Amino acid sequence: MTIEDPGFLPVHAVVPAGDVSDDLITRLERLRKELPRLETDAETGALDVRLDQQDEPQVRTRGWREGGGQSLWEVLALYPHGSVRHVLCTDIARDGALAGPNFGLYSTAVGRFPHIAWQASGGVRDALDLRGLADVGVAAAISGKALLERRITPEELRAFLPDASSPA
């Protein structure tokens, strides 16, 4: 999936119908049974990560206060293939920092789990960052602070919307 595909969620409005959030960790057993039965793409698992000293993304829960001792890859491997279809992944070290996204993290995520539509969060500064994320295969991006500070113009944003006539 590329950022131009019809299934792409607008960069400025990634608001999933359902948000699994910490549930991917805290309600593991129940969700492992329920997610494969859902016939919808409405659920998005939100996983917040912080890179450890070996650059492995470690999942944080409870508003980033707790570490579960598991990497992003370990958590996703617990679920049957294809049962998790959308993941909003926030690199919490970059969230709100306008320091640029962690392209390596998202490139690795897409490579390891290509069946997941990845939504990148943390660090987006401008339209060049959105293009870079699209180039590594990310399906959508959160660009909150960059939009609030008008670092991305509506004209620049329009290129990333699924329908070019959509208002930005």
Structural description of this entry:
The chain has a single domain (29-158), classed as Aldolase class I (TIM Barrel, Alpha-Beta Barrel). Helices cover 27% and strands 21% of the residues. The protein is built from 7 helices and 7 strands; from the N terminus they run E-H-H-E-E-E-H-E-H-E-H-E-H-H. It has helices spanning 23-26, 28-34, 72-77, 103-112, 127-135, 144-148, 154-158, and strands at 18-19, 43-51, 57-61, 66-71, 86-91, 117-121, 140-142. Strands 1, 2, 3, 4, 5, 6 and 7 form a 7-stranded mixed beta sheet that branches.
Key traits:
168 residues; alpha/beta; TIM Barrel; 7-stranded mixed β-sheet; 7 helices; 27% helix; disordered N terminus
Number of separate domains:
1
How much helix is in the residues?
Answer: 25-40%
How would you sum up the global shape?
A: globular
Q: How does CATH name the architecture?
A: Alpha-Beta Barrel
